[in-house]
Amino acid sequence: MGHGSSGPPTTAPAPAPRGTVRERIDRLVREVVKFGAVGGVGLLVNLLVFNLVRQVTDLQVVRASVIATVVAIVFNYLGFRYFAYRDRDKSGRTREMTLFLLFSAVGLVIENGVLYTATYGFGWDSPLQSNIFKFLGIGVATLFRFWSYRTWVFRALPVREPVTRGAPSDDSQGSRTTQRVP
Fold it and tell me: Vertex 75, ends 64 and 155: CA angle to 5°?
């Protein structure tokens, strides 16, 4: 509507607060660093247990790897729940544990599938080759685990928008209401 018209004034939508994209990137970077710290120690646990089991038992390479992966999964759950994702939703621990175990099992299959393919598909079974493909499998599975854990298992709590005292807001019906901060 032009200047001097009798209709309601038009207003442009308010721009997003400055820094929101930056804040989201900062949060993601912090999450990746925490995930990486837990995962890095979990990687060491996985590789140490893998090599220990291979040295002291006669188990086949993939079976030794599965044992190591299970030990690392237990370690990683504790690290993720109580360090990396300690600020996430803690309600529904049964659901969280079920999904964690489900996605961890998929990661276990990815991780050990790479090792299985290298060992039995290509005959690469020396200790060095086994460790290289174990490491490669962990890397591929980690990408899947990061996505699935942050998306489904350790859900972020809803973001609470700051509300100013007595500021009007629109509800879904289009009527004007006033929200008050307790």
Answer: 125
